[in-house]
Amino acid sequence: MFRQTWTKTATLALIFAGLAAYNSFGGPFAKELVIEIAILAILAISLDFIGGYGGMISLAQGAVSGLGAYAFATVNVLFGASPLLALLSAILTAAAFGGAIGAVTARTKGIFFIMATLAFGQMAYVLVFDAKALGGDDGLPGIARLDLSRVGIDLQQPDQFAYFCLAALALTYLLAAVLLRSGFGRTLCGIRENEDRMRALGITVWRYKAAGSGFAGVFAGLSGALAAQQTMFVSPEMLTWTVSGEVLVVVILGGLGTLVGAPVGAAFLVFVKHFSSGLTNYWHLIIGFILVFAVWSGGRGIYGSIERLLTERALHRVPQRARSFKAAAATEAKADA
Amino acid sequence: MLLFLLSVGLTVIFGLLHFVNLAHGAFYAFGAYAGYSAVRWTGSFWGGFAIAPIAVAALGAALYFSLIRGMRHSGPMNQVLATFGLIFIFLDAFRIFWGDIALGIEPPASLAGTVEFLGIDYPAYRLFIIGLGLLIIAVLHLVLSRTQIGAIIRAGVDNGTMAGCLGINVEIVFFLVFCVGCALAGLAGAVAAPIVSISPNMGTEILIPSLIVVVIGGLGSLKGAVTGSLLVGFLQTFGAVLAPHVASIVIYALLASVLILKPAGLFPVRS
User: Is there a contact between A110 and B76 if contact means CB atoms under 8 Å apart?
Assistant: First the structure.
C-alpha cells in the first residue's frame, strides 16, 4: 500500500526545488539535463507503478513509451493535427498497448513474465523499424511542441519547456499516488502480495493487471510524447529493450516500490551519465558497478536506504518502552511501502 | 547451432540453479575475444578453440564465488538486475581491453574451403560447426541420461533439497554445472568468431534470441533447448529468405504465443 510519508514529501520537495533552481540558474546544458531527468522520471514512475506496486516488472515499458512518442509524431507530422491532439493520441495509444500487454501476460509469472514483456516490446520495435510509412530506421523528424502561447508560455524556450516537463512530472506523481491510494491501487498491491487470495476474494485478477498496465501506459505515453517534443524527432531506438532496461536501472537505483525513488534515480543516473562521460568514455562500466552493488547490498535503492536510515535513527531516539511498538510500526511501513 | 550451444548453457544454469543469467551473452562475447587473443598468441585457431572455454569457465567461476552464489535465492528480479549490471561492466571492459573496432579471425586452413555436400557446395567451416553442435548434443544427452553425474544433475533439477538429503553435495554440482554452462558459451564464442565479426555488442545481440530459445523450449530442459534453437534458427533463416518483412516479427510472435498457450514452455522440466 502506498503512503505519502513526510520523508517522501521532503525528498520530492528537495528534488523539485533543486531541479527548478538548476534550470533557472544553470547554463543552457542544465536545461537539457532537467528535461531529460523529468522525462526519464515520468517513465520510471510508470514502471514503479506497475512493477513496484503491481508486482509486474515489465521490460516493455520503453517500447510502450516509444510507441507513445511515435503516435505523437504520426498524428502531428503525418496527419498534420495539432500537438494537443497528438498528445492525447500518444497517451491513448500507449495506454492501449500497455493494457493489451497486461491482459495477455496476466497468466505468466516471474521470469516468464519478464520474457513475455520483452517479446512484446521487441515486437513493437521490429514493427516500427520495418514500417516504411513511419520512416523505418531513419525515424520521423519535424515534430512540433505544444503551443501554450495563450497562457503566456513559450515552449520553444528551453527553460520554459523544462518547467513544463517538471510540471508534467509532478502531475504524474500526483496521479500515481492518488491511484495507488484508491481501492484500485490497494487491490493491485493485494494481487502482488497474494494473487490466489485475491482471486478467492472474488477479484478478476487479469482485469486489474490489464488496467494497472494501462495506467502505467498512460504515464509512459506522456513521457514518450514529451521525449518526442524535446528532440522534435523520433527513432526506433526509443523502443529497444535496453531503454526499458535503463528505466529499470533508474527505478532500482532510486528504490523500487517507493514512487519517490523514480525521480531520485532518474536525477542520479542522468547526472552520473553526463558528468562521468566528461571524465571517461566508459560510463556504462560505472553504472554497471553501481547497479550490481545496489542489488547486492539489498536492493533498497537510494531513497529506500535513506528512508531506512532515518527510521532507524528515529528508533534509537525513542525510549526503550516505545521502541518495540515503533519497530513494529516501522517494519509494517516498510512492508507496505 | 551457435544458438544451441549458447542456450543449452543458459537453460542448464537456469534449470539447476534457478539463476537467470543475462550476462550469458557477455560470456559468449568474452569467449570470442579470448579466442581472438589466444589465436594471436598461439598462432593457431585450435589454440583459441581450446583456451576460450577454459578462460570463460574461469571467469564464470570467479563470478560464481563473488556474486552469484549469494544471489541464488534472491528471486529472478534481482538476478536479472545484477546480471544486467554485469552486461554493462563487460561491455565497457571489452572496449577497454580490445577496443571498439570489430575484430576477426581466420578459420583454420584445414576448414577454409568448401565441401560438396548433397550436391551443394557448402563452406567446410559451417559444416564443422554443425558437426560440433551435434557432437555436443550427443555428449550432453549421454552424460545426462546414462551416467551417474547425469543422474545427480537431474536429481538436483527435480528436487535440490531432496538430493541434498540423500547425501549429494548439491552446491558443488551446481558450481560445476555453472562452469560447464559458461564453458559452452565460451566455446560458442570462439567457434563463432571466424564467421561473425567480434564486437562488444555481439553478446547483447545474441542474448535475446537465446533467451527466446530457452523460454520456448522450457527452462532447464535439454530437449527444449534443441527444439527451441532449431525452431528459432529455421524461422530466422528461412523467414529471411521467404518473407523478409514478417521474419523478424515471427519469432517474437512465436514466443508470445508459446508463453500464452503453454506458459512453462514446450518441454517443461516440472509439471
Answer: yes
Residue length, chain A? 337
Domain annotation covers residue B18: yes
- Partners of residue B78 in chain A, C-beta under 8 Å: 295, 299
Instruction: Identify from A50, A57, A112 which residue to disrupt to test chain B contact, counting B C-beta atoms within 10 A and taking the largest count.
Output: A112
ipTM exceeding 0.90, yes/no: no
On whether the CB atoms of residues A119 and B256 are closer than 8 A, the answer is yes
Provide the domain limits for residue B21.
2-200
Euclidean distance between CA atoms B99 and A301, whole angstroms:
33
Ramachandran area for residue A80 (φ above 0: left; ψ -120 to 50: alpha; else beta):
left
Q: What H or E segment, with its residue span, contains residue B121? A: strand B120-123
pLDDT digits (tens, 9 = 90+) for B68-106: 777 777 777 777 778 888 888 888 888 888 877 777 777
User: The whole model's pTM is what?
Assistant: 0.81
B234 occurs within a structural domain: no
User: Which of A292, A293, A297 to mutate against chain B (most B CBs within 10 Å)?
Assistant: A292
**DSSP-assigned letters across all residues of B80-107:** HHHHHHHHHHHHHHHHHHH-SS-B--PP
At B271 the pLDDT is 39
With a cut of 80, say whether residue A39 has pLDDT above it. Answer: yes
Number of separate domains in chain B: 1
